Amino acid sequence: MSDAPAFVLQGVEKRYPGFTLGPLDLTLAAGTVLGLVGPNGSGKTTTLNCIAGLVVPDAGAIEVGGRPADPRQGHRKSDLGVVAETHGFYQKQSVEENLRFLSRFLPGWSERRAKELAGRFGLPLDKQVRHLSKGNLAKLALVAALGHGPRLLLLDEPTAGLDPVVRSEVLDVLWEVLEDGEHAMFYSTHVLSDISRLADELVFLRDGRVLLRSGKDALTDGWRRISFRLAERDVAVVGAVEYRRVRAEHQAVTDQGEAALGQLRELGAEAIEQSRMTIDEIAVTILKGGSHVAAR
Amino acid sequence: MWQLVKAGLRIHRPVLTNAWTGSVLGVAGLFAVLYLVGIVDSRHALSWAAQALPVYLLYASAVVGWIIIGTELSEHRLRLHALLPLPLSRVALAQLVLPATMLVLGLPLAHAAAAIDQAVFGAGSLWLGHVVLDLMAAHLLLLLQLTLAVKEVTVLRESGWAKAALGILFVVLVVLADLVVGLPRARVVLAPGVEISVHIGSLAVCTAAAAALAALTAAFTVTLFVRRIHVTR
Q1: What's the gap in Å between the CA of A58 and the closest CA on chain B?
Q2: Where are the beta strands (DSSP E) in chain A?
Q3: C-alpha triplet A277, A279, A282: angle, nearest 5°
Q4: Interface contact flag, B83 A82, Cβ < 8 Å
Q5: Could you tell me which residues of chain B have a Cβ less than 8 Å from any Cβ in chain A?
Q6: What is the DSSP letter of A6?
Q7: Structure pTM?
């Protein structure tokens, strides 16, 4: 397995009327999972498309698997598996015929692996793509992305619109794929419970800019909601992302929970109550906080 | 590139064979109706149907070309092809070659139908000769290529109106050039008192000119495609 990062983005910028992505500096280490979290229109799909070579950035450099990525050349794409909302499958062909089409172009394609995955998902191989349900279409996209064992998986909301059972199946398969440590995954989603299961690190994106990049464990360990009673004056709580006071009742959200608790004990705060935050709560706080969080 | 074209051919072949079958049955049906309502007698109905068939086969093949362009667009095929380990220039060429192939396959069939017609009804009965079929095929090929060029110009609009305007200008110039050199006797009125009048005479020269314009348009389309800022649609 190559030690080169799965991808490196350096100062990548993409400008559209009314929206600019970047400049983005992002690295994904080989064999790791990076979750990309952001509201609609934050630039998640554009970022993934730049890495996949579907969108040419206006500035910056992209390396995939240690090699400069030229969107006009195709060779590096054999190491990529992409799942996106739009697939481009042949609608009047069966699932099997679409997979056979891909097998002719993708080196390393394993028919056994593809059929195994399709069987696992209960994907009807003989059904025309146009007659597939949304869930089955997502499964087909995943089989198509995994059939050639790519080193880098780019997943753009792969579980969007799927029912909980199918979503769970998809996540199980992705989890198994990651087990060998040879696959890197860049996963964008709104469903944070998906990411919290798979991702090693999270990147929060808003308005085309990275607000925060953090390890998943650091997030869940560090972020706390704390309430306490102290004198009727504002307190600069360590790592405070949110803070409010009503007379002597204080409430804060901090990303440095332990340090903040130590500080409050030293200050003589009373009735200190603290709770850990879920990834969802943390994400909402970060994305609502926007530049405030990024500037800290 | 050829792999993509071959795969496309395999997938779209039923549409082509259906179109050819439809042409044969359509022409036969049309002249059968004309015979039944008494507009033509049986001898003429058969003769006219035979004479019309080569042109219908050619048109049907071209229509399949346009159906392919539409299907590939509506099914976002580019998205699938752009993620294959192929250089973008080959993906672009495959997009151009696949619809054109329908016409290339239809042309020999049209010639064969014309030859049978000639053999059965005599050379004198043939109102559309082989050379005319070639000329029509060259023009249909050009129209197919212009369709794809217009698609690229539409995408080019996202890079700025000035570039798109140049693209539109190219398309207009190709159409004008075809009107002038693609027909044996042409008179194009550009504005009151401004006209171009050309008399080439030779159908073979006109066919070559139209085919050359089709090749030029294809080169223009590929150039625009590989300079695209995105290949998401």
Answers
A1: 9
A2: 7-16, 19-28, 33-37, 59-64, 67-68, 80-83, 152-156, 184-189, 201-206, 209-215, 224-229, 240-246, 249-254, 270-276
A3: 65
A4: yes
A5: 3, 7, 11, 75-91, 226, 228-233
A6: S
A7: 0.83
Q: How far is CA A220 from the centre of its chain?
A: 16
- Contact (Cβ atoms closer than 8 angstroms) between residue B15 and residue B67: yes
CA quadruple B90, B96, B98, B103: dihedral positive or negative? negative
Q: What angle do CA A87, A208, A58 make, to 5 degrees?
A: 75
Q: Which residues contact residue A132 at a Cβ distance below 8 angstroms, ignoring those fewer than 6 apart?
A: A95, A124, A140
Q: In this complex, do B85 and A78 lie within 8 Å of one another by their Cβ atoms?
A: yes
- A252 touching B, CB under 8 A? no
Residue B117: how many other CB atoms lie within 10 Å: 22
In a 3-state reduction of DSSP, which class is residue A167? helix
Complex-level ipTM beyond the 0.90 threshold: no
Secondary structure (3-state) at A5? coil
| Helix, strand, coil content of chain B in percent (nearest 5) | 80, 5, 15
Distance CA A159, CA A137 (A): 11
Token couple for B163: 């570039």
Cβ–Cβ contact A17 with B under 8 A: no
Cβ within 8 Å of residue A89, ≥6 positions away: A98, A129, A137, A140, A144, B75, B80
What SS3 state is found at B229?
coil
DSSP calls for B3-51: HHHHHHHHHHHHHHHHHHHHHHHHHHHHHHHHHHTTSS-HHHHHHHHHH
pLDDT 10s per residue in chain A (296 long)?
467 899 999 999 998 888 999 799 999 998 899 999 888 888 999 999 999 988 889 999 999 888 888 777 777 788 899 998 888 999 999 999 999 999 999 998 999 999 988 988 889 999 999 999 888 898 899 999 999 989 899 999 888 778 888 888 888 888 888 887 788 999 998 778 777 778 888 999 988 999 888 888 888 888 889 999 888 788 888 888 888 888 888 999 988 888 899 998 888 888 889 888 888 888 888 887 744 555 45
